[in-house]
Amino acid sequence: MAGANVWPDTPEDFRTACMDYYHAALAVGKKLFCLFALALDLPETYFNDKTIYSAATMRTLHYPPQPGAADDKILGIGAHTDFVCFTILWQQTGLEALQVLNSREQWINVPPLPGTLVINLGDQFARWTDDIFKSTVHRAANKNIVDRYSIALFFGTDYEVNIEPIHTCVTAERPAAYPAITAGEYVRQRLKAMYNK
User: Fold this and answer.
1) What is the torsional sign of CA 35, 40, 45, 51?
2) Which end of the chain is more exposed for a tag (fewer CB within 10 A), N or C?
3) 100 forms bridges with which residues in the sheet?
4) How far is it, in rounded angstroms, from Cα 126 to Cα 186?
5) Beta pairing partners, 98
6) Burial class of residue 11, CB neighbours in 10 A (0-12, 13-18, 19+)
7) Cα 80 to Cα 193: distance, rounded to the nearest angstrom
8) Distances (CA, A) of 6 to 9, 14, 101, 195
9) Phi, psi of 88 (to 5 degrees)
10) How far apart are CA 117 and CA 90, in angstroms?
């Protein structure tokens, strides 16, 4: 599920800047696992042995301008959830495009704030927590008059890690809703469903 990156020749420092950001975002992902472990009444280090070789894919995303397009004609990425545990998203300041679906089934804008990142929870984390923490349904489309850019780091566990509801997330009254599956097999199944319809 991995391959060599293809890097553009210009700008000259693009690869270095991307790799610096990638490693910084990985550090954020590791911290998130520590914080969520504590939130789930687990030791802070609970996820450490499950994220030694974390599956982490980064994408630099370009959304072309689409001013004045009718809502049903807007190009972007439609409503979806992400496969992995967390998506760490940097958004270009001053250009709204990201929306999340709230619990009342309303689309809410996520305005980019300088110096911040957006953290979306993904399907693997929802499975692990037996939906105590739910996946973030989101979409993005650029309705602005200028190009929009964002950077998404999709952060998961080691592919051989078993994803099954954590013991602090299930009770006799609230039994496990998901069968166990390895993280890698889960990603493979989701990719197959997306591309082999």
Assistant:
1) negative
2) C
3) 108, 138
4) 13
5) 140
6) exposed
7) 13
8) 10, 12, 34, 22
9) -105, 115
10) 5
Q: Are 110 and 98 in contact (CB under 8 A)?
A: yes
Length of the chain measured in residues? 197
Q: Looking at residue 84, what DSSP letter applies?
A: S
Read off the tokens for 71: 């809502």
pLDDT tens for each residue of the chain, 197 residues long: 567 888 888 998 999 999 999 999 999 999 999 999 999 999 999 999 999 998 899 999 888 887 766 555 666 788 899 999 999 999 999 888 899 999 999 999 999 999 999 999 999 999 999 999 999 999 988 888 888 899 999 999 999 999 999 999 999 999 999 999 999 999 999 889 888 76
Three-state SS at 81: coil
**Residue 193 neighbours by CB under 8 Å, 6+ apart:** none
Rounded CA gap, 99 and 141, in Å?
9
Strands, E assignment, the chain: 56-63, 76-80, 86-91, 98-101, 107-109, 118-121, 138-141, 148-155, 162-163, 181-182
For 18-173, list the strands marked E by DSSP.
56-63, 76-80, 86-91, 98-101, 107-109, 118-121, 138-141, 148-155, 162-163
Question: Exposed/middle/buried for 38, CB within 10 Å: 0-12, 13-18, 19+?
Answer: exposed
